[in-house]
Amino acid sequence: MRRPAPPRSCTPATAAVQTRGLPARGPAEPRRGAARRLAARLREDEGAAVAEFPMVAVLIVMIALLVIQAALIVHTRNTLVDAAVQGAHHAALAGSTPQDGAQRAQQLVDERFGRGLEAEATAVQEDDGTIRVQVDATLPLVGLIGPAGALSVEGRAVDEEAW
Questions:
Q1: pLDDT tens over the chain, length 163 residues
Q2: Is 131 a member of any domain?
Q3: Alpha-carbon span 14 to 32, nearest angstrom
Q4: Are 159 and 131 in contact (CB under 8 A)?
Q5: How many domains are contained in the chain?
Q6: Which residues 6+ apart lie within 8 Å of 24 measured at CB?
Q7: Which has the closest alpha carbon to 154: 127, 138, 131, 128?
Q8: Predicted pLDDT of residue 88
Q9: Partners of 156 in the beta sheet?
Q10: Which of 40, 47, 140, 159 is buried most, with the most CB atoms less than 10 Å from its CB?
Q11: Domain named TadE-like: which ranges (predicted)?
């Protein structure tokens, strides 16, 4: 079985030289060799890790910081919701006023966050006997510093005296 002959690359400049029986070395040959060497070097992976590591490391650090920021916001929100609910439950006790519930919620926020978190608790008794304690706070959107965003949560409880 015969094998097919390998294809020959032939340009018009080298064809004229090859037909005269001279070796095929024209002005285009050195450029083609340099282009092949450049293409071979570009295909190599040598030194790629040095360039890839900083790009990947920046992405991993950014994702980690975003996860930490999301956890901080969710923790702050959950803590404020708990303070509002505890304040509403305190205000719903017999002998307590809605202002007692607002003070209790404010006290819990101050104990858990200190004065670093600007929060204000208000309480209202609705017509159906439900006491609603609302906590409005501004929390930092970038770590523990940076621009602030508003967050408003509320807790409700049924007043014992309304039953």
A1: 566 665 555 555 555 545 555 455 555 555 778 888 888 877 887 777 788 899 999 999 999 998 998 898 899 999 999 999 999 999 999 889 999 999 999 999 999 988 778 899 999 999 998 999 999 998 877 776 777 888 999 999 998 887 7
A2: yes
A3: 12
A4: yes
A5: 1
A6: 14, 17, 18
A7: 131
A8: 95
A9: 132
A10: 159
A11: 47-88
How far is it, in rounded angstroms, from Cα 5 to Cα 21?
20
Asked if residue 102 is part of any domain, the answer here is: yes
Can you list the pairs that 117-120 forms with residues at least 24 positions away whose Cβ atoms lie under 8 Å? 117/76, 118/148, 119/80
What Rg, from alpha-carbon coordinates, does the chain have? 37
pLDDT score recorded for residue 132:
96
Query: Cα(first)–Cα(last) distance of the chain, in Å?
Result: 103
What sign does the dihedral 101-102-103-107 (CA atoms) show? positive
* Structure-token match 């070097």, residue found: 41
Instruction: Say if residues 123 and 101 touch (Cβ distance below 8 Å).
Output: yes
Alpha-carbon distance values, 110 to 35, 50, 58, 73, 93 (Å): 70, 49, 36, 17, 22
3-state secondary structure of 66: helix
Rounded to whole angstroms, how far apart are CA atoms 133 and 82? Answer: 11
Assess if residue 27 is contained within a domain: no
The parent domain of residue 120 ranges over 52-162
Coil, strand, or helix at residue 20? coil
CATH code for the domain of 98: 3.10.450
Locate 82 and state its tokens.
């708990």
